[in-house]
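Q: How would the structure tokens look for this protein?
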Amino acid sequence: MTETDTTGSPAETPRRSDATRATILTAARERFATDGYERATIRAIARDANIDPSMVMRYYGNKEGLFAAAVDVDLRLPVPEKVPKEEVGRIFVEHFLDLWEKNEVLTALLRVGVTNAAGAERVQGIFREQLLPVALRVCPDPEQAPARAALVASQMLGIALTRYVLRLPPAADLHREELVAWLAPTVQRYVTAAHPGRTR
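A: Here is the predicted structure in token form.
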């Protein structure tokens, strides 16, 4: 059954409304991931979701509102107090790989983030609101936490881009255990090692 707008029709039940929103968001994530923010259109997303474009506008207002909802990401980062200090690098790498392998939202966000200001702002917000607070609680020198968190992000976003977005064969073909073995010591060093000092 095709959705219609609410003019002259009964209100949707909460269950049907939730299902409609979920359908729209799934279609939006796939479209944003495929086309990027600029090329993706409300009409194309509505067509993918098999609903009227007016329903997308009803729930999300415009493309910017839809994008914000579609890439609402909770990284669910491990709680620092529960992570052994010497295991931070490995646990963080394994956690991020789990996220990238199971969550298409992150792939969509990364694709858009490298080409569009709205996507870049969303990535920056996730960094500021979710990754930085964890770094502040783990790093030995809190004043350097932003730089350390940025270095961690460079590793995880870099492997995500090459492995899950660009799918470069050497990166995509690495076994998970091998990838963790390569990345974990680097992330561990970024987070917990003493500051290497500044060059003049």
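The radius of gyration is 20 Å.

Residues 1-9 have pLDDT under 50 and may be disordered.

Upvote if useful.
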